[in-house]
Amino acid sequence: MSAVLMDGKALARDIRAAVKEKCLTMKTPPTLAVVLVGDDPASAIYVRHKAADCAECGIRCLDYTLGGDTTEQRLLSLVDELNERADVDAILVQLPLPPQIRENVVLERIDPRKDADGFHPDNVGRMLQFAPRFLPCTSAGILALLRRYEIDPDGKHCVVIGRSNIVGKPTAVLMLQAHATVTICHTHTADLAAQCRQADILISAAGRAGLVRADMVKEGAVVIDVAMNRGEDGRLCGDAEPAVAEKASFLTPVPGGVGPMTRAMLMENTLRGALLRRGAAE
Ligand code: NAD
After folding, report:
1. pLDDT single digits (tens) 164-193
2. Within 10 Å of residue 100's Cβ, how many Cβ atoms?
3. Which of 67, 114, 138, 176 gives the lowest tally of CB atoms within 10 Å of its CB?
4. Pairing relation of β-strands 181-185 and 157-161?
5. pTM of model > 0.85
């Protein structure tokens, strides 16, 4: 058996088209402010992609690039300014931040009604209560991809590898909300392979190439590979070794699976921010 490859690129294109259609009906375009601090090359690429996605969707994108020596106070003042501005609907501060800036302090400063990434504790709390306002983009993207392929987590055993605030934890919560039975694995998990073999849906977000071997995957399981690693040959790869495609029923390719979905969900969150703030006016 060879797994069906889940086409995140195609679904992301459909989502951007739907966002664009809605944006065209609005009096003024939704506006996303993207703040990049420092010159991390990967972050710079992500920010460029986000600007291109915005252009395609008819979202106004405001780019702020600050030097790597920016103080926490300077960044907080910019966040305050963007919070206050009536023409800004959503704010994204690109992570990671340089070491002199505390990530949690900055994320908590963003107005939770403009929190495009969904990382503010207020939004995390709402998600935990199954009454979300904004959902973290990668986790929301995974759920959208499962829906597109009519894979219903209800009653399934879902194993998530990774417990970060950005991917692992929110993904586990959304799978729980979708009525899966959820196991979260991490670096202290005693027997990762045994846990993974229990999974009907295995979601790997460890960032370790080759961590998920074919013998750890139950025949016919759905495997969502979130990771973006550089292989020894310099090419982008996920956590799953290639042979996993022979065991799984569905598999997300890397690249072209979860990555494009994360970006598409940011466009949805920006539109959502605009609709929330403008309310009945639109
Ligand atoms: P992270 O380093 O913050 O977290 C990794 C998690 O994996 C940790 O909780 C750790 O306990 C666990 N882990 C690591 N090695 C393990 C092992 N050997 N066994 C068991 N658990 C292990 O990373 P993150 O920010 O959560 O990102 C994870 C991966 O997902 C990275 O490859 C990142 O590039 C990728 N990512 C992809 C997208 C996307 O859109 N596709 C978005 C965000 C992150």
Report:
1. 999 999 999 999 999 999 999 999 999 999
2. 12
3. 67
4. parallel
5. yes
